[in-house]
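Folds abound. Consider this:
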Amino acid sequence: HFYHPEDGEPDRRCLSYTHDRDYEAYKEIPPNVQAPPARRNGQRGWCPPPPFCYDGMDPVAPRIVERRTRELQAGRPDGGQQGQQGQPPDAEL
């Protein structure tokens, strides 16, 4: 096969809002870019294909809600776009 099952959650630095189905479980789509047409129509990315997901990846939608709720409760209404002291959210990892 071309794909191999993923062995865990993605590295946040490697996420792609155009490709990763679980992108929004970790980050908001950047406000300064236009979401790809598929995302605007409510679809998610394609990677990884369902048979190759890491354990616990699906379902993605409840994880998106959980992330957004945590960020709002932590006082980050920007959806986590800015980390502490203006750093990108990945700087906190």
